[in-house]
Amino acid sequence: MAAAHRLPRLRLPLGALALAVAVLLIANVQGAVSPFGTLLPALASGPADDHLAAVLAQAGDQAEHGPTSPALNVMLDEYVRWHVVKAALVGLLAAVLAGRSVVTWRRRRWLGLLPAVPAVAALVVLAANLSTVANLGPPFLLLLQGG
After folding, report:
1. What is the Cα–Cα distance from 81 to 37, expressed in whole angstroms?
2. 19, 106, 119, 146 — which has fewest CB within 10 A?
3. Residue 48 gets which letter from DSSP?
4. How far apart are CA 2 and CA 101, in angstroms?
5. How far apart are CA 12 and CA 31, in angstroms?
6. What is the rounded distance in angstroms from the CA atom of residue 34 to the CA atom of residue 91?
7. Is the pLDDT of residue 92 over 50?
8. What is the number of other CB atoms lying within 10 angstroms of the CB of residue 112?
9. Rounded to a whole number, what is the distance in angstroms from the first to the last CA of the chain?
Protein backbone atom coordinates (compact mmCIF):
# COMPACT_ATOMS: atom_id res chain seq x y z
CA MET A 1 0.00 0.00 0.00
CA ALA A 2 2.86 2.40 0.78
CA ALA A 3 4.38 1.84 -2.66
CA ALA A 4 1.09 2.82 -4.31
CA HIS A 5 1.16 6.18 -2.53
CA ARG A 6 4.74 6.90 -3.62
CA LEU A 7 4.11 6.15 -7.30
CA PRO A 8 2.50 9.54 -8.15
CA ARG A 9 5.53 11.31 -6.69
CA LEU A 10 7.83 9.21 -8.82
CA ARG A 11 6.04 9.78 -12.12
CA LEU A 12 8.06 12.84 -13.08
CA PRO A 13 11.52 11.33 -12.35
CA LEU A 14 10.48 8.06 -13.98
CA GLY A 15 9.21 9.93 -17.04
CA ALA A 16 12.48 11.84 -17.31
CA LEU A 17 14.41 8.59 -16.96
CA ALA A 18 12.25 6.95 -19.63
CA LEU A 19 12.92 9.87 -21.99
CA ALA A 20 16.67 9.59 -21.41
CA VAL A 21 16.51 5.85 -22.06
CA ALA A 22 14.55 6.46 -25.28
CA VAL A 23 17.17 8.94 -26.53
CA LEU A 24 19.98 6.47 -25.77
CA LEU A 25 18.02 3.69 -27.47
CA ILE A 26 17.61 5.85 -30.58
CA ALA A 27 21.36 6.50 -30.67
CA ASN A 28 22.16 2.79 -30.28
CA VAL A 29 19.68 1.61 -32.90
CA GLN A 30 20.90 4.30 -35.25
CA GLY A 31 24.50 3.20 -34.74
CA ALA A 32 23.58 -0.45 -35.31
CA VAL A 33 21.66 0.25 -38.53
CA SER A 34 24.23 2.67 -39.96
CA PRO A 35 27.61 2.18 -38.27
CA PHE A 36 29.55 3.99 -40.98
CA GLY A 37 27.10 6.87 -40.92
CA THR A 38 27.63 7.15 -37.19
CA LEU A 39 31.42 7.29 -37.62
CA LEU A 40 31.32 9.63 -40.62
CA PRO A 41 31.54 12.84 -38.53
CA ALA A 42 34.77 11.54 -36.96
CA LEU A 43 36.34 11.46 -40.42
CA ALA A 44 36.49 15.23 -40.74
CA SER A 45 36.85 16.17 -37.08
CA GLY A 46 40.16 17.28 -35.68
CA PRO A 47 43.35 18.14 -37.52
CA ALA A 48 43.87 16.30 -40.79
CA ASP A 49 47.15 15.41 -42.40
CA ASP A 50 47.79 16.43 -46.00
CA HIS A 51 46.62 13.15 -47.51
CA LEU A 52 43.33 13.08 -45.58
CA ALA A 53 42.70 16.75 -46.39
CA ALA A 54 43.22 16.00 -50.09
CA VAL A 55 40.86 13.01 -49.96
CA LEU A 56 38.17 15.04 -48.18
CA ALA A 57 38.56 17.86 -50.69
CA GLN A 58 38.23 15.37 -53.56
CA ALA A 59 35.13 13.81 -51.97
CA GLY A 60 33.60 17.26 -51.47
CA ASP A 61 34.32 18.18 -55.08
CA GLN A 62 32.76 14.95 -56.33
CA ALA A 63 29.72 15.40 -54.12
CA GLU A 64 29.23 18.96 -55.33
CA HIS A 65 30.01 18.61 -59.03
CA GLY A 66 29.91 14.84 -59.76
CA PRO A 67 30.52 12.22 -60.98
CA THR A 68 30.80 10.33 -57.71
CA SER A 69 33.08 7.38 -57.07
CA PRO A 70 31.72 4.08 -55.70
CA ALA A 71 33.28 4.84 -52.31
CA LEU A 72 31.54 8.22 -52.15
CA ASN A 73 28.26 6.56 -53.15
CA VAL A 74 28.62 4.25 -50.13
CA MET A 75 29.30 7.27 -47.90
CA LEU A 76 26.26 9.11 -49.25
CA ASP A 77 24.03 6.04 -48.86
CA GLU A 78 25.13 5.59 -45.26
CA TYR A 79 24.63 9.30 -44.58
CA VAL A 80 21.08 9.09 -45.92
CA ARG A 81 20.35 5.86 -44.03
CA TRP A 82 21.60 7.47 -40.78
CA HIS A 83 19.23 10.43 -41.19
CA VAL A 84 16.25 8.31 -42.29
CA VAL A 85 16.60 6.00 -39.29
CA LYS A 86 16.94 8.95 -36.93
CA ALA A 87 13.91 10.64 -38.49
CA ALA A 88 11.80 7.50 -38.13
CA LEU A 89 12.78 6.87 -34.52
CA VAL A 90 12.47 10.50 -33.46
CA GLY A 91 9.10 10.70 -35.22
CA LEU A 92 7.94 7.70 -33.21
CA LEU A 93 9.21 9.32 -30.02
CA ALA A 94 7.40 12.57 -30.90
CA ALA A 95 4.15 10.67 -31.48
CA VAL A 96 4.42 8.86 -28.15
CA LEU A 97 5.23 12.09 -26.31
CA ALA A 98 2.37 13.94 -28.01
CA GLY A 99 -0.04 11.14 -27.10
CA ARG A 100 1.20 11.19 -23.53
CA SER A 101 0.74 14.95 -23.45
CA VAL A 102 -2.89 14.66 -24.58
CA VAL A 103 -3.67 11.98 -21.99
CA THR A 104 -1.99 13.98 -19.23
CA TRP A 105 -3.68 17.22 -20.35
CA ARG A 106 -7.09 15.70 -19.73
CA ARG A 107 -6.21 14.94 -16.10
CA ARG A 108 -4.05 17.91 -15.14
CA ARG A 109 -3.60 20.70 -17.60
CA TRP A 110 -0.21 22.02 -16.52
CA LEU A 111 1.33 18.53 -16.37
CA GLY A 112 0.28 18.00 -19.97
CA LEU A 113 2.89 20.56 -20.99
CA LEU A 114 5.76 18.47 -19.61
CA PRO A 115 5.71 15.81 -22.35
CA ALA A 116 4.74 18.43 -24.95
CA VAL A 117 8.06 20.28 -24.64
CA PRO A 118 10.28 17.31 -25.58
CA ALA A 119 7.69 16.37 -28.24
CA VAL A 120 8.21 19.74 -29.90
CA ALA A 121 12.00 19.31 -29.62
CA ALA A 122 11.66 15.87 -31.24
CA LEU A 123 9.63 17.39 -34.07
CA VAL A 124 12.41 19.94 -34.67
CA VAL A 125 14.95 17.11 -34.88
CA LEU A 126 12.59 15.23 -37.21
CA ALA A 127 12.29 18.27 -39.49
CA ALA A 128 16.07 18.75 -39.54
CA ASN A 129 16.68 15.13 -40.54
CA LEU A 130 13.99 15.17 -43.21
CA SER A 131 15.36 18.40 -44.69
CA THR A 132 18.84 16.87 -44.74
CA VAL A 133 17.57 13.84 -46.64
CA ALA A 134 15.60 16.05 -49.04
CA ASN A 135 18.60 18.27 -49.85
CA LEU A 136 21.66 16.13 -49.22
CA GLY A 137 24.39 18.24 -50.83
CA PRO A 138 24.99 21.20 -48.49
CA PRO A 139 24.84 19.27 -45.18
CA PHE A 140 27.16 16.56 -46.52
CA LEU A 141 29.65 19.12 -47.78
CA LEU A 142 29.52 20.88 -44.43
CA LEU A 143 30.22 17.55 -42.73
CA LEU A 144 33.23 16.92 -44.96
CA GLN A 145 34.56 20.37 -44.12
CA GLY A 146 34.40 19.55 -40.42
CA GLY A 147 31.30 21.62 -39.65
Report:
1. 7
2. 106
3. -
4. 27
5. 29
6. 18
7. yes
8. 16
9. 55
**d(C-alpha 75, C-alpha 56), whole Å:** 12
Tell which wins on pLDDT, 40 or 134.
Answer: 134
The model's pTM:
0.82
Q: What is the torsion angle, in degrees rounded to the nearest 10, for the CA atoms of residue 90, residue 92, residue 97 and residue 102?
A: 140
Contacts 24+ apart (CB under 8 A), 68-74: 74/36
User: pLDDT digit string (tens) for 68-80?
Assistant: 889 888 888 998 9
90 within 8 A of 127, measured Cβ to Cβ = no
Neighbour-count burial for 40-69, b at 16+ CB within 10 Å, e otherwise: beebbeeeeeeeeeeebeebbebbeeeeee
Dump pLDDT digits (tens) for 99-132.
Answer: 999 988 888 888 888 899 999 999 999 999 999 9
Q: Model confidence over 15-61: pLDDT tens digits?
A: 889 999 999 999 999 889 988 888 888 777 777 678 877 888 888 88
For every residue of 77-141, DSSP letters joined together read HHHHHHHHHHHHHHHHHHHHHHHHHHHHHHH-TGGGHHHHHHHHHHHHHHHHHHHHHHS-HHHHH
